Every structure is written in structure tokens, then in C-alpha cells.
Amino acid sequence: MGFGQFLSAPETKLRIVTYRDVFQDSAKVASIFGEDYEKLSAVIKLDPQDISKLSIKEGDTLILKNSFGKVIVKALNSGYDHSHTGTAYMVNSPWSNALVPEDSGGTGVPDFKDFEVLASSAKGGKVTGIKEII
Amino acid sequence: MASVMEIYQLLPKTNCKECGKSTCMAFAVDLLSRKVKVGDCPPLVREDKYKANYEKLSGMFTPVDNVTETGLIVHADKCIGCGNCVVACPVNVAADPMGAGSGKAPTCDRIILKVEDGIVKAMNVQECRRFGENKILCVACIDTCPTKAIEFV
Amino acid sequence: MENDYYVCTGCALLCDDIGVELEGGKLNKVHTACRKGFAFMKGCTNPMECAVNGERTDIDSAIKEAASILRNAERPLIFGHANSSSGAQKKAIDIARKTNGFIDDTSSFCQGPMVEAIMEGKLKTCTLDDVRHKADVIIYWGADPANSHPRHMSRYSYFPRGKERQRGWEEDRTAITIDVRKSDTAEICGQNGFYQIPVKGDAEFMDAMVSALSGKIPKTSYDLDKKKLLELASILKKAKFGVIFAGLGMVYALDDREPLYKLMDKLNSVSNFHLIPMAGHYNMRGFNENLFEETGYINRVKFSGEEVLHGPEYSVVEALRQKAVDAALVIGADPLSSLPRSVVRYLEEIPLIVIDPCHTLTSVKANVTIPCGLVGVETGGSAVRMDGIEIEVKQIVDTDRLSDEEIMTRISEAL
Fold it and tell me: Domains, chain B, ranges and CATH?
């Protein structure tokens, strides 16, 4: 940890869209407690512009929080050829579900694929482990 | 896959000949066809200033131990075993129209692509349309792959 | 070649052409299954033990304890079922009835609305075999089968030749993806076959499609390539046999199904279109059909004596949020993994029973854990594919674990 930890990290509001990934799903079937599953789940895919806005580098960890929960995940470049600043993608997992709003407006269907979080650099903090989530 | 120029740009460009080739361009051409490995360029491995380029090139040429004699490579780490290539391959369709050619389990062993343990495997590759005397630039298996797991070198 | 085929229970495609090679009573090689299916059949590395309050015990004691929890509960929740055989699902419905319990499955926060509309005859549907043999226009809407159902495109929907589609995908079929991002499936459909819409822009896109199909200029509040949309309309009009695969992206984006009904009506007035919900887990559709047969509802049911109550207040999410249940039996699902953390926290406050082949996040918090055989590998049964076709599932290897159906039968008998 360097001098950076004493500076306040810029915070950015992100709209999260979740998706499925066959590699992550296969890792889950092998073991939900396994390293592979964490590696493939605890990630967020951002627009490169949002990565610089957050003053982080690809591969750094980010704190994601809202009133429902808080997790630390690894930030990756989404690799999409279209710009999607302000929107970020997370694979459906206990990490994304820790942030999904509880209120379903009485419908019984939470907003799994569309919710907001506040993101800021975790300044080297470690990715949240699955056992810390449950 | 990168072009020979892109590869060349990442090499030291000093034509030092330590690798045994006369120029860095010659090395790039051989690297592209996988006749040499990234690590066969001594300065690239040795000198710190080339470290970033060395890593970039190593990423482009992930080691593959399953290059078939005809140059077809399946990147097992990227393959999802969907079988799109199996059913799209014209050789498979001709050899096994009701099995592999219809998206189902293969019913004959003259096909060139099949899925085993969740990953596509190449066999009988001498039958592939990209090879032999009357070769054509068939891209059926490459175009239909959602994860770019198949490559020809 | 291996001709004795088995069924993969890795997802709701229930591929029934899987070849296996055994060695020493265990799976050694699996042919034709995709990456996900192979992982599923190979099984987990962390099998669940039979335990009561963290102490290992025998199956009889665990079943006795489970029955006692359910007997003592006034309003137990019987939840899960999507990864469970039809036989076990029917017993689960019995258990819910006997205990005046709530019963719900993962379709409640997943494909429920689509399956319901199909079972009530509000959406025209067809089978995957129809798609293979006839479909010429295929739309993946908010769906990414390359990741969720890897063999979907190769076995049924795009690449295979079929009776009326002899010339193959390049000439005989058009595949289209409508999604908020360029998924792996969208990559296959190509730039011309990909329609990118904003998050929650689905209903407006449906309205715009209806306009375009009616020869009107489509309007949306967001930027849309009108020319491309009109081209889409002309492709859809020419379709002889069209199918929309509705993914969770579409399901979650619609506040109600009206825009979809309007679109399907319009499509069927100008051509011929069907819809199949992309059910994820291998027997979610089976649970919906089994409960529908018993109660007339596909999910979200509470038994109360002779009466059957139904509504969003009986959904697993609302039941847990409102703390309306006082015990839970979870089978064939992992709510702690698949539901919002804030919703499932309540499960830790009530007696909890988990039946599963493997340790799950939910089983960590359970008072009673009862391991069952992995359906499709260690035990057999039947299940219903995403298109409503029933598939018999055979056992491949021997196990000393009971089947999910046997465990549920014994719990039901012990009540």
C-alpha cells in the first residue's frame, strides 16, 4: 500500500446488467466453493472510460456497494466494441446477488439484471470470498 | 490471429541473428506458422526492455500441444463443446448426414470433428477441405464458433 | 460407435444422445455433451454428507428429523424443484399439501411468466424438433444460448439440417439476436442479425416491431436504426416458420406481457411465429406442468386444507421477505446462491432441510442435509424439456445414495 490509500478514491455510479457464462457455470457445477468459481464470478466488466474515471487499472479490485450489500470484485475491460459508459456487466453469481435489490415491488421477481451500485477502487483490497458472502 | 507485421513490431527488430534466422522478419514469419516459439528469441527473453512485448507475444501464442498435422488447432481452454463446428463442417455432413451432420451424436467414424469430454476433438484431418490437392479456404468451423476456439496455422 | 445413449441433465435441453465409457463403475469418457453438460455429469468435488445439526448421521435419522421439522411447522416452504426429477416433484407437492405449506420453484423469479402464458394457451409454441425440421427465422431475444444452452444452436435451432431445411443454415435459416449487449450468440448471428437495444428497451422495441409490421414508421424513445428495423420486419413477414426463444433478458425487461402478446398476434397475422421459453434448469418446466396438473397453477402456491391459494404473496421471494414461512425444505436448487442475499437471510432463522447431491451455499446453513443421487447419472427418472416434451432419464452408474424421489417419498410417508 502506498500513499494512494490516504486519498479518497473517486466514486462512480454504475448500472449493472448481469449475464450467464458457460465457463463460470461449469466451474459452479464442479464446486461452488472452488477457486475457479470465485475467479470467474467475482468480476465486473467495465467500459475502458469508466476504468480510467475510477483511477484504476484493469485487474485492480473495486468496491461495489448499495443499500443491499457490498462486495469487492476484480475490474476487467468488457472488450465490447461499442461504448457503454455508466453500464457495467457482472456474471450472475452470489456476488451479483449480494447487490440485487430486495424489493420486488410485490411481484416476487427481483431486478436481477438491472440495478445500481456505487463503485470505487478497493485500493488493493482482496476479492470478497464466497464464505464471506453467506 | 495477428499479422506478420504486428508480430514483427513486437520483436526487437535488431536482426541480431541470435535465433539463427537472418532477420527479425524471418523469425516473425516462422513464429506465425509456429515453426519457432516466442522463447526462441534470446534477447526478447533476456532483456528487461522487451518484457512487455515478450508477454504480449506469449499471450498471442499460447502453447498448443494438439496442433494436428494439417495445422488445425483447437484451443481447449476456449471451447464450450457446443458442437456448432461439428454440424457445420461439410465433411461431417457428407460423412454422417443423420448423426453429426444433424447436430446429434456421431454415427460413423469418418467425421473430422466431434465433442468428447465437453471439448471438440479433431480426427481424420486429412479429409478437411482446407488440405490436400484440391484444397479450398473453408471456414465453416471457424465462422460458427462462438468463442474463437478453432484456428488454422 | 456407442449406440446406447443417455440423457444429459445439465440444462433444459435434456440432450438424449450422450455416449459414455465407464471404468471401474465410474464415468471415464463422455461423448457429445457440451462443456457444461460434461461438468454436470462428472459431478461435483464436494458431495454433501447426511447430517443433522452438523453431526453426521444415517439416512433414517435424517429423514426422521426432516419429517419432524415439517410436522412441527405451521407454514413450511417447499422450494427448489428445478433440478429434481418429476417423481420427486410430485412427492414435493404431496408434502406441501399435507403440511399446509407454500410450494414454489425457481420459475417464480425466472421463466414462470412465459411458461404460464404457454400453458394457458396465450402464446403459440412448438417443439424443438419442429424448430429443427421447419424453422427458417430464429430469434434469440434476451437469450444467449452459446452460454446458457451450448448445444441449442447446433442441435435444434440454427445449424442442423432438417426435413424442410435441407440446405443448411447458410441458405435455409436466418438467425437474429435482440439483446442489450453483443453476446457470443450475437457474434454468430453477425452484424446484420444483431439488434442492440437499451436495458429495459424490450417493450418499446416490440411496439416498434408491431408498427413496422403494419407498414407504419416505428417510433422509440431511444435511438434506433429505422431502416434496419424495417428490414427485420420484412424478414419476419416472409418467415414460413418463425420462432422466438425468450431468454431471461426479455422476461425481466417486461413489466407485463401485453407488448409481447401484441407482437405475437401481429406476427401471426402476417406470418407464422412460435415462442419457446429458454428454461435453464433441466426440469423447471416439469415442475410447472406437474403443479399445474394438480392445482391449475404453475408455481407460487400455498395449500390451506382443501383450498389452494395462489399469487405473488406465495412466491419464494415474498414469502421469505415477509417472513411468512416457519421452516423450509429446499430440493434441487440453491436459493442462497441464486436469490438476493437480503431476501434469503431469513432462511438462516428457520429450521432448514436441504436435499441435493452436492454441498451448496444453502446446505451450509441447513439443519438437516440429505444427499441424493445425481439424476441422470446415479439415478433415473423423468423430466420435461424446455419445449414441454417429456424425456425419460436413465441411470448410468450405481450409487449407494437414494434417489431424490425415494427421499421425498420417505419424508412424505413419515409425516
Answer: 4-60 (1.10.15.40), 72-152 (3.30.70)
